[in-house]
Amino acid sequence: MESIKKSFMAAWIAIISLVLFFTLSNVVLADPPTYVAVKGDSLKTICRAYYGNPDLWRELWRINPSIVNPDRLEPGFVVMLFTTDSKNDTPAKAAEEGVELLSLLNNPSSLKNTRIDVSDYTNVDALGFLSPEKVAPRGSLISDETERIFLAEGDMGCAAFEKGYPIKPGDVFVIYHGSQPILHPITGNAAGYAVSFLGRVVVKSKVRDNVYQVEIIESYTDIRVGDRLIPFTPVSPCVQVQELDWDLLKRNDSLIFPIVEAKDLQNILGKFSVAYLDRGYKQGVRRGNFFQVVDKGDSQRQKIPGLPYLIRGYVLILESRSNTSTGVVVYATKDFAPGALLKAVDLKSAIFEILATYKTDLQKMVIEKGTGYPNLLEVLARLDRDAEPKPDLPEGLRVLMHMPGCSVE
Fold first, then answer.
1. Which segments within 22-167 are labelled E, that is strand?
2. d(Cα 268, Cα 257) in Å, to the nearest integer?
């Protein structure tokens, strides 16, 4: 009888142990909650469905760094979900655990929030550009109501447009002046024409046939009757920093190339000057690219072989056309002239080298900020301010991180 009781108790202990084992195993070994994406899904739709708040999509992106486009998920993609804190319905420890910041930085789009506001450096509406050929006007100013030699903002007048060109009230045109043919400062060959922007007009009403009343809404310099018009294309002062297309630059001999001309045909360039280049997006120069202004130094230094270039400043590209581009000098240690050389800067590698070195400090700072993809220039500025020992940042990065940021391009 005693042996039966012992056997019965042993069986119950075994059953209870087995139940506890599977229960604890499920608790410990359970996979994180996931969701399989279907057609039309985005991180916002998932956050709206699971958490009732689409604005949590950035936190969801942080724990799914392999997602390239948060607005369009591939059907079948497995999205890792986060648990929430019942008190405030925010991701529990999402900013503290499970996210390796460098895995985010390894994403090719990790520079996407690195934006710079150039409003304090130049008026982006008045940049002008270098054109390989003469620009064909769409119209010209033919009269004004002031009878003054020079026109200014607020003045009314009339403009004649080419026949057949579609015009309607509200259309905006740039008043421009084209230069005489420009010679390349290095080769002496024809390099195109500098197109200077004088101001802008808005079409008010039709007078007759192809003649319309216009109002000058902005003037940058002297405007006269007879000045020509081309359609206005806005350029945002919020510039997204872009990694260089090294392969395309190499194929087009564009790793080092000269400044061809300056805005308004200035002979001397310095900080805030606008530079015209004879390379565009077909040669690998894109809006948001960053270049050093370099030279070999004085004549004595040039005689010594193997010496590196001296850095004289930095240029940020603001606009890129097919075969030309326009940049602004954001920093200069000395004045220079057209013909000065621009040298490609490996900005992304420089940033990532610093961030990898200061990985622990960086993670703490991003956790404190509590946002998704950070503006990497802001992160560098915080590293420079708070990290010990202070990072040895390249001069170009210091230039960029002291420029004002912006949120929308």
1. 34-36, 78-80, 115-117, 129-131, 139-144, 156-161
2. 18
The per-residue pLDDT for 108 is 41
Quote the pLDDT of residue 18: 43
CA distance 327 to 275: 5
Contact in structure between 206 and 133 (CB atoms under 8 Å): no
The C-alpha atoms of residue 15 and residue 8 are separated, in whole angstroms, by: 11
Give residue 83's pLDDT.
65
Pick out the chain residues at pLDDT < 70.
Answer: 1-32, 83-112, 144-147, 360, 362-374, 408-409
pLDDT for 112: 64
The helix (run of H) or strand (run of E) holding residue 249 is helix 246-251
Asked whether the beta carbons of 393 and 380 are under 8 A apart, the reply is yes
Half-sphere exposure of 81 (CA within 13 A, CB side): 16
Alpha carbon 17 to chain centroid distance? 60
Residue 116, judged by CB atoms within 10 A of its CB (0-12, 13-18, 19+), counts as buried
Strand, coil or helix: 318:
strand
Query: What is residue 368's predicted lDDT score, i.e. its pLDDT?
Result: 58
Q: Characterize the bridge pairing of strands 182-183 and 341-344.
A: unpaired
Q: What is the C-alpha to C-alpha distance for residues 395 and 314, in angstroms, rounded to an integer?
A: 10
Strand pairing category for 325-332 and 274-277:
antiparallel
Chain mean position to CA 21: 54
Consecutive H or E run containing 294: strand 290-295
**Would you state the structure tokens that stand for residue 155, as one six-digit string?**
């003045």
State pLDDT tens for residues 186-239: 999 999 999 999 999 999 999 998 999 999 999 999 999 999 999 999 999 999
- Per this entry, what is the length of the chain? 409
pLDDT of residue 349: 78
* Cα distance between residue 212 and residue 161, in whole Å: 8
Quote the tokens at residue 288: 């948001």
> In whole angstroms, what is the distance from residue 376 CA to residue 111 CA?
7
Q: Which residues of 32-56 are buried (b: 16+ CB within 10 A; e: fewer)?
A: eeebebeeebbbbbbbeebbeeeeb
Those residues whose C-beta lies under 8 Å from the C-beta of residue 241, and which sit 6 or more positions away, are 111, 114, 115, 116, 288, 290, 347, 377, 400
- Token couple for 38: 């279907």
Q: What is the pLDDT of residue 293?
A: 96
